[in-house]
């Protein structure tokens, strides 16, 4: 008897996580700071709330803890909690937004964290948009630059967080934050695994990613174009936009369980499950 050509990996087991999320009470697309946003097309606020609530329910059903921060009127993008901070093993780097429209969110996230037993939230001097661009693999901090977070912030993150930083150059405006084109699937220090969409990165960065993650899951153009990489993995289950069916199959073949959610209304601001979720 011959071995099957494609060996399917054994199922992976996730670990319980603690997430911070922000209800989309004031969610709107009233300005355009990325190519997904079209302020001339009104948002269906009820639908956005329904999709966001289903995401919270999905996390809780998986055994995760979801904490909530109160949204502020006039900050329609505050629902994207991933941009609120970068948290690694209890050390927290605050954020500084590129665009004036989002600047005030930084203080609200900082205040919440300080009020919830985080001893310190370092105020950055360089622009960094939190876990949207600074992604921890368990051993390396992958740091995006090109549209929002500045290169100088990478050095600052390394100093504040005390972790080795790898700078990654983003080149496609549709993939303006690192978490729109790269997904950390496994953050165990000895066997990190990511999925990513190579054309969103400069040629040199693509070579870096190939060297560091030779086993990575390579996403297709269709997976990327629905913001399918904006998913949230607990090491076992991966919560993904429902359109990312190819990616879901690729993850299942690696032993992950894809869990699909509909985030169509949030995508109209350029976001998905991961953007709405800050891992604490
Ligand atoms: N409209 C928001 C912005 O452009 C979307 C942020 C999405 N967040 C993320 N982590 N990718 O800033």
Model description:
By secondary structure, the protein is α/β, with parallel strands linked by helices. The chain has a single domain, classed as L-arginine/glycine Amidinotransferase, Chain A. The chain is built from seven helices and 15 strands. The protein has helices spanning 45-61, 105-115, 151-161, 203-212, 221-225, 245-253, 264-267, and strands at 18-21, 65-68, 86-88, 91-93, 121-122, 134-136, 141-145, 165-169, 182-186, 193-196, 217-218, 232-233, 237-241, 257-261, 278-279. A three-stranded mixed β-sheet has the order 2-1-15, with helices on one face. Strands 3-4-5 form a three-stranded mixed β-sheet. Bound molecules: arginine.
List keywords for this structure.
280 residues, alpha/beta, L-arginine/glycine Amidinotransferase, Chain A, three-stranded mixed beta sheet, 7 helices, 15 strands, 19% strand, binds arginine
